[in-house]
Design goal:
It is built from 4 helices and 3 strands, in the order ααβαββα. By secondary structure, the protein is of the alpha+beta class. Strand 2 and strand 3 form a beta hairpin.
Length: about 130
């Protein structure tokens, strides 16, 4: 009720305040960030090994452990490696230190993966 009395006593003040609120609202809308999700830069690379017909335990022993050792000893900036083996598929998540050059890390992981693949192919051809 006090707002109505104020508006009747001081109409110019209320009109200026209303225009000020309208102007600030329009200004806020134009400068507001439109994306509701913040930019999150988590340097992580996912490696998926596919070996149809190989049981999960063999996938872990023959592929995942070899890969983990090779990645951890040759690729720089690795913070941690998480892996999971299911029948025929090996999943590896390789987390890097914040600020790592992810393009170079992907190239290095690809290079090491190709080396591992050649080693596994030669090993399976011999047995």
């Amino acid at each position: 009720m006090w707002i109505v009395r104020l508006a009747l006593r001081r109409p110019y003040t209320v009109a200026v305040m209303s225009l000020f609120i309208l102007l600030m609202g329009a200004l806020s809308i134009t400068r507001m960030i439109s994306d509701i999700f913040p930019t999150i830069d988590i340097p992580v690379v996912m490696v998926v090994w596919n070996y149809p017909g190989l049981p999960a335990q063999d996938m872990e022993r023959r592929v995942i452990l070899v890969s983990e050792r090779a990645f951890s000893t040759t690729v720089n900036g690795i913070e941690r490696i998480e892996s999971e083996a299911i029948p025929g598929i090996g999943l590896m998540r390789i987390y890097f230190q914040p600020g790592s050059e992810i393009g170079a890390a992907i190239a290095h992981i690809s290079w090491v993966s190709q080396t591992i693949l050649r080693h596994l192919a030669a090993r399976n051809a011999g047995s």
